[in-house]
Design a protein that fits this description.
Elements: E1 4-10, H1 30-45, E2 52-55, H2 59-72, E3 79-81, H3 90-98, E4 106-111, H4 115-123, E5 136-141, E6 155-160
Parallel strand pairs: 1-4, 2-3, 2-4
Antiparallel strand pairs: 1-5, 5-6
Amino acid sequence: MPLKQLFIIRHAKSSWSLPGQDDFDRPLNDRGRRDAPMMAERLLAKKIDIDLIVSSPANRALTTAGFFADAYRLDKTHQKTVRSLYHASPSVFYEVIRSLDDGFQSVALFSHNPGITAFVNELSDARIDNMPTCGVFAIRSAIDHWKDFPKRDNQFWFFDYPKA
């Protein structure tokens, strides 16, 4: 049976330098701009394919996703934003995943805490206390169609994040 691969990625470290700035608009800070391309390159070095990027439209998530898109040389037809991924609950993650086009085998989702930590902890027996910024939680699922993505019985693949 084919395996679908899912990478759940929290946005890189964001800037708090402008007091009063709307949360949605916060950019990455210097560390975030360093960590995002580094983590993308780390996945590439593992010979991991990503053929679709799906991101929250919030600035920090979209910028993080952009670094991955650049590293993977993915054009705009392989990138999309989904408004509901901004501060999504686990049920929203499932909804987004189940709506994916089956032509994509390997998908990276970019979103935010606290929902992203709650979501990854539902996927397998692996437990993460707090999904770190630019952390990558990877799952393989023995499904042909994304609409069949399960809450459990996924194969935990790996977890990686930038060490401070």
